[in-house]
Specification:
This protein has 12 helices and 6 strands. The strands form 2 sheets. A 4-stranded mixed β-sheet has the order 4-3-6-5. A two-stranded parallel sheet has the order 1-2.
Length: 265
């Protein structure tokens, strides 16, 4: 949470609208225009359809009530404005009630390419378009319900499921192109190109393997898990996920494919 002080979080008014500055809107415009050109042929069809459906503003930070009007009608979801990172419990509580948390700050110019904490661009541009998709929306809802009921220890394993699907998931139909559906990739120009290169290891999605795979948030991912289509998220939702969590805890973690993070002295 140490970086939060650098960001300016905003409080929505009684109607849910936020008065962003011209500088903040300009940052959104630059981020949007830079990344949108990377996505045709790389983002999955469901995401690209979601971008069209949401019709979010290009030259200013979208207002959450405007997004809610579309999401609620299509999948019953809406957004929830949050100041910054929120505790696991609150995160699961929001998802379980079909509310997607969206930070009310945008990154600084100095962190244009990368920031460790999700900002409004990551949340809205990276994730909200797929909340128009029923399979993705349902998976997010089931995930929230599971997390809300899970123990603190089990939530650590559930976090890996979210990481390798909603944040950093890839999709490839048989004999089809490799595409992106994870919002952590879709909101990052660098990772968009890297994820579809020959550098990372691609693995077919296996729930038990996913739950046993460690990750770091501050590096390009060495491993991505690939599903066959976005509707497969519905199949995952129907699995006994907590039974798999129990098995993963018994088996233990895989060896990391990355170097340990060096702690500052």
């Amino acid at each position: 949470m140490s970086n939060v002080t650098k960001y300016i979080s905003h409080q929505p008014d009684s109607q849910g609208y936020i008065n962003y500055s011209e500088q903040e809107d300009n940052l959104w415009q630059q981020l949007y225009q830079r990344q949108i050109t990377n996505l045709p042929g790389r983002a999955c069809d469901a995401y690209l359809q979601g971008i069209q459906t949401l019709n979010m503003s290009v030259d200013r930070i979208p207002q959450l009530p405007d997004l809610d009007n579309v999401l609620t009608e299509l999948t019953g979801w809406k957004t929830a404005a949050v100041p910054a990172l929120i505790p696991f419990g609150k995160f699961f509580e929001l998802l379980a009630s079909k509310q997607f948390p969206v930070a009310t700050f945008i990154r600084t110019k100095e962190e244009f390419d990368y920031l460790q904490e999700p900002d409004v661009f990551h949340e809205v541009f990276g994730h909200c378009p797929l909340l128009t998709n029923p399979a993705f929306a349902n998976f997010s809802h089931i995930y929230g319900q599971l997390g809300l009921a899970a123990s603190k220890e089990d939530r650590v394993f559930l976090a890996r499921l979210y990481w390798f699907t909603v944040e950093f998931g890839l999709v490839q139909a048989k004999d089809g192109p490799l595409n992106i559906y994870g919002g952590g990739i879709l909101s990052s120009p660098g990772e968009t190109l890297y994820a579809l290169s020959d550098k990372p290891e691609l693995r077919p999605f296996d729930l038990l393997d996913v739950l046993r795979t460690p990750y770091r948030i501050d590096i390009m991912q060495p491993i991505y898990y690939v599903i066959e289509d976005i509707e497969y998220l519905d199949e995952i939702s129907k699995m006994d996920i907590m039974a798999y969590v129990k098995k993963a805890r018994e088996l233990g973690m895989f060896e990391p494919k990355f170097a340990p993070k060096v702690k500052a002295s």
